[in-house]
Amino acid sequence: MFMENNFFNYITNPLSNDEIDVWFRSNNIITEKLELFFDFSYGLTTIVKKTYLGDSINKTQDVKMTIEDDKNHFNWCWNKNLENFEKENIIFNKEGEHYRYFKDFFDEIFYGQQKKEIKESIDQFLIDIFSLDTDFSKSDLDLLLTIYKSLESNMVYISLHNN
Predict the structure, then answer these.
(1) Cβ distance 50 to 81 under 8 Å?
(2) Burial of 122 (0-12, 13-18, 19+ CB in 10 A)
(3) Do 63 and 57 form a contact (C-beta atoms < 8 A)?
């Protein structure tokens, strides 16, 4: 019962603003990077959702996608998102833990998901997890840190000059 209660608290109990502030500082979370990483995550999500043909196009037409089709679609979306950021001189590595994280995330929550409402909730999930105006549980902060650190370690950095 004690472990069960601890887990419940981990995923549900909101932390105080002071606890969140200390957590952000101790993990070197920079607000501007947090906003950039939200843009990266949200941009990828938008591309995936807007270009995926596997869901019903209309009531009479349904396109069946294979696992290979889904993999190719994700890779195309990933590369498109990277290209969009490169146009702004913000460069991320093509491969790395950030790629694996998002690939696994979309495989489970989007491509492998049968419930439309879960697929449609990805946008709000990202808004909630990246918003500084939300209540955070320890679980939320751990998830945010995973995404933040994986993107931070795979960002080549921002070029302020066009060469």
Answers:
(1) no
(2) buried
(3) yes
Structure tokens at 39: 């843009």
* H-type alpha helices, 96-137: 97-106, 116-120, 122-130
Q: Decide: 73 and 51 in contact? Cβ < 8 Å.
A: yes
**What's the pLDDT tens digit per position in 137-160?**
888 999 999 999 999 999 997 766
Q: What is the pTM of this model?
A: 0.84
Q: Is the dihedral of CA 106, 118, 83, 157 positive or negative?
A: negative
- Other beta carbons within 10 angstroms of residue 145's beta carbon come to 15
Distance CA 33, CA 30 (A): 5
Identify any residues that bridge with 158 across adjacent strands, giving them in sequence order. Answer: 90
Q: Which tokens in the block code for residue 159?
A: 């070029």
